[in-house]
Design brief:
By secondary structure, the chain is mainly α. It has eight helices and two strands, in the order H-H-H-H-H-H-H-E-E-H. The chain has a two-stranded antiparallel ribbon. A hairpin with a 2-residue loop joins strand 1 and strand 2. Helix 4 runs parallel beside helix 6 and helix 5 runs antiparallel to helix 6.
Length: about 250
Amino acid sequence: MQQSATKYPELATAAKWLRAAWWLEIPLLLAFLVALWGAFVYAPTERVMGEVQRIFYFHVGSAAVAFFAFFIVFIAGILYLVRRNVVWDQLAATSVEVGVVFTTIVLTTGPIWAKPVWNTWFPWGDPRVMTTLVLWLIYMAYLILRSSLPEGDKKYKFCAVFGIIGFIDVPIVWMSIRWWRTIHPVVITSEGANLEPRMSQALLMAIAACMLSLAVLTLLRGAMRLNQLVVDRMAQDVIDSKRSVA
């Protein structure tokens, strides 16, 4: 086992990530219980939109997590190009998968909220909606590119560059409601959140719970990726050794 860990250092990293995920499971459960209490009990009902507005807390929380996940992709891509350590590539790929999941949640909860409030499921042409959809498509394209290329440094470099460039859309999504006319209100400003205090607190609870879920999902999926990478390398080593004997 020690020899395998020396030959395949990714195994040690995967084990550390699994242990970290295990320690975060109970805090994650507690955080989501608190967030649900904050969104559905503690926060007051919005006077105009009513109960459906409570989707807002997890809608925004998921968006914040998606942005942060793609920021991890951006940083991990740079670190891979600099250090050529496959762990950074696997972290980037994992963060894309998790980021796409949370972006899907954003694009799903948005219409549920929009229909009773704005009488439309999907407001085509709205800058925030369209830039978010583009963001989802960019990182779906990343996953398609990744699955179509053979393993190796060339694939990792292409994906790193793609992930770095794709991150450009994140600040565009953030600034879209400030640059263009949109049905989305500007809730978070440089002076704080334009919300009733208990709503702001409920939003922070939801964001914290979503951030913890990002950490746990990234650690678990990243460990799976690293273990699969090592298994593939071991299989290739066995094939190469048989060929050399033959």
